[in-house]
Design brief:
The complex is a heterodimer of chains A (about 550) and B (about 550).
Chain A lengths: L3 H7 L1 H16 L5 H5 L1 H19 L4 H4 L8 H20 L5 H9 L11 H18 L5 H20 L5 H32 L4 H14 L4 H14 L11 H8 L2 H7 L2 H17 L4 E4 L5 E4 L4 H23 L4 H22 L1 H27 L1 E3 L2 E2 L9 H4 L1 H15 L5 H15 L3 H27 L9 E3 L4 H29 L9 H6 L6 H12 L1
Chain B lengths: L1 H19 L4 H22 L18 E5 L4 E4 L4 H20 L8 H20 L3 H10 L1 H11 L4 H34 L6 H7 L5 H18 L8 H8 L2 H26 L1 H27 L4 H21 L3 H32 L15 H15 L5 H14 L15 H26 L21 H19 L2 H14 L3 H32 L1
Antiparallel strand pairs in B: 1-2
Chain lengths: ~550, ~550
Amino acid sequence: MVDMSAKLFLITPEILLLIGAVVVAVLGLSSNRRVRNAVPWTTVGFLVAAIIATDVVYDGSEAVTGADLLLPNLGLYLKVMVGVIAIGLVLVGIGMVDRRYEEAIRNGRAGFDPLRVVRGEYHAFLMLSIAGTMLIANANDLIWLFLAIELSSLPTYVMVALGRGTRRNMEAAIKYFFLGAMSSATFLYGFALMYGATGTLSLTGMQEVFATQAAAGGIPFFGLLGMVLAFVGLSFKITAVPMHFYAPDVYQGAPTPVTAFISFMPKVAGFGAIIMLCMAVGWSGHHLIDDAGIKVPTEGLPRPVHATLWVIAVLTMILGNIGALLQTSIKRLLAYSSISHSGYMLVGVIAGTAEGIDAVLFYLVTYGVANVAMFGALCGLQRHDREVETLDDLSGLWKRHPGMAFVLALSSFSMLGLPPLLGFWGKLDLVVAGITAGETPLVVIMMATSAVSSYYYLHLAGLPVIRKPDARTEGVDAGPTPWPRIAGVVFGVGILALPFAAKSLMTQAEHSTDASRLASPEAAADSTNPDSGMSIEAKGSSGRA
Amino acid sequence: MQLWILLLIPIATCVGIAFGGERNARAVALGGSLVTLAWAVVLAMQFPHWQAEQWTYWPAPEAEAFPVLPGIGVAFELGVDSVSLLLVLLNVFLMPCCVLGSWTAIQERRREFYVWLMVLSTCVMGVFVSRDVISFYTFFEASLVPGFFMLAVYGGPDRREASFKFFIYTFVGSLFMLLGLAYVAWQHAEQTGSWSFTIRDLTAFAPSLSATEQGWILLALLSGLAVKVPLFPLHTWLPLAHNQAPTAGSVNFAAVILKLGLYGLYVFILPMVPEAVVAWAPAIATLAVIGIVYAALICWVQTDVKKLIAYSSVSHMGFAVLGLIALNPVGLQGSVYYMLSHGFATGGLFLCIGMMYERYHTKDLREVGGLAFKMPVWSFFFIVLVFASVGLPGLNGFVSEFLCLIGTFIAVPGAQSGYGGVLGPWFAAIAATGMVLGAMYLLYMTGKLCFGPLREPADHHDHAELPVDLNLREITAVAPIALVCLVFGLMPWPILHAVEPVAEEVLEPYPALVESHVERTERMEAAGSVAAAIGTAAERSR
């Protein structure tokens, strides 16, 4: 057992973010406009501090190796990634969420009312959600995992509701909240069943128990059922089938910067949790018992879990991509596209072991960067003082905002996975991981569905350039603040430039599964013997090397 | 670094175009494409293997590698052999002609247009100089974006449909190509213990896979490459795209982009999956022959000149495919030669049509014709290029078509050349009707367009800023192409010699494979007849 101070040291970045949340919540209530304007930058400052803190914490500290984690080094990669992309998401949202009200105050049409100003809340909740997502990397038992997921989700429910006023927004907020609560209940029930099956809440303990059970007569039914329920519940977070129905409505109803946020952050949280749970059950050493009572060894996850994830992945890829074909609203289209991206990443999860996890982690970066660039461009534009809504609003964009048209094209092509852009390398890595794990049918489906996706991404990338401006697009102009556009351009450059750094990004992603307990059953069984703790770590790292 | 510089010159030109202003765009583009041409010529003069006995890449394999994802062995590695260098030369040679050809045709959004043209040039050259499947795939796919935008922004009335069809067709196909290549790489990693995506490693390894696996890989690769070639029935994007594209786009599509597919067949399919190629060669050849005849018949009834030439490309590329899978050096040399000569001849034809279109704003054979008196210079070049396309002896088309057909004809089991094949005289005979049909529809088009009474569109008054016949700029654009057609027709030896060692190296495993394949089929047939005999004997005895 690690003592409390080491544990607290490990979560320094999250503690910083919690402090930051309190600070910006207070700053946002100031009646001084300058102070309020400083809120986003304070947020960015705390995020930078959290990133630096992550680097310090993980710099060979004892707290990391001693924390009894399934993936001790995951935090370094995950927290830095979340932090950097969150900075982009903050920039995307600058001056957007509370624009009307702030403008009204500036024009003297409304007085300052602490109850109506939302800037502080927005950034405070944003930081809380980020802190929750980061905490998942340090989860060592189910309770922690559950609390971290909840901490990352609950603030997003409020954030969706911040664009108050329109009916669509209300619908989105209520849908998101109730369905989110249902999903939490589902995976919590799953967690409970897993606890029942293993008698422990600790993830490492659970891994050992599962390994022993698998080696003996198979994981008991309730353990598997718990696992399946947990995945079904978590599929809400990653907008996967069967919990994907909310996505189009919520993405459309939420203010655009919030859409940007919820299309990335809960996904990281969800995939973090799914990877943890899959690690606990392990990708090897399982078997089926056939009719004659003979054990038949199987590859990968235990069959029922594998089958569940397989079906989820396939349906997610198919429904996401087909749904997107029919959309005229940009945000709905992006909602479906984000559904399909979750499907692709699930391929990596199913493929499993170090390669698969690395691929998923790498893909999250490629997706996140393209996402910020895309939403940066969308938030940076407005039509008659409102958000741009439909694909038609974008036609002829090249004439007035060639930069934004370029960023939109870049990010859609990257999401499509067109080489040499960043998205391609993520997809390539997933394909390789999938094929290596023998999941060729799944990879074929992934290819076929991303072929379908070329149609709508091509519209998104092409219409701004191809079509001539018309009466409808007369009203489209640049938004009031340049920051969303700057974020779009910076992350757009990232789409072009990061492939050159793909090498080091990949190395980082691979590093996050170093020294992990991606162990075969024997190794896990060994670790019941306290002396062998060191040897497992040695095995893990040599296996990766 | 030399090859990287080759790829970077057009990109640098793009920067120049972007900052050079709308008016200077075309001049900067012309300058950039001439510099690229000059650099490529320098490279070609340095290339040490023109007359080599052995087939090697140049420069040395690791000299131009740039690691991207070392975890799975992905690195960008560049290098050329004589075939790829020839195709690079084809591309850089046509690029200044394209710029000159679009000099006045592109009036709006010029900067973008020339940027896309330069990017396209880089992508295409990148495909030819890649020595790594991932960089090959990257450039192969990236070439879709400039092609898409050139088509979609500057194309004819159906540009939207044409551009989407072009992009999606190729993108979908090549995803499966990537899958096939990734599968080979994985098998390589499984069996040798290290990841590698270089063409060198994969082509050395892949033939050891089982025949069934090879068959699947062939299917995957073909689904990407056959779209580009294009092989019947995957050709339907082509007439639309070529017809709707602006002049420079059509020239590029026909002359270079189609060669990407054929080059892919040469660089991947032949060396990687020999067993499957032997087994499936008759099927592929059947598709090629169907394409030859079918497209030729369609050409015959076209009234749109550009569409006619586009379909003639489908027909002509069928010959090149035939030569390639004849599996003997003659056919392969012919196929490579076909890639070059089709590039020049059809590229030049599209250029000529563009010049006519700029004057009359129609490409309908019923509305315009009899131009020989009015535009003698134009007609001269047009007729030269038509003859090159038809395959008149003395021009380049003849050499390549003849070699491809000969190669197909002698591709029978146990051929005297030592290179047995699985095609034979029948394929050659049917394909040869395509030659006859080609002469018919191309000469019919020429007759309508150049001779007979003068026909001009009713609303046509003058040529705006252009003279009645070609001006000096237009002659500069098209004359070099016509000249090359003549030179290639009269002196094919240097190139055929340069390709010979490559062809022999690539085809080295084939004679043995063909023999064992033929033996196996015969044995199976014999076994079948024996079984039948036993069956009847058993019946009788009952």
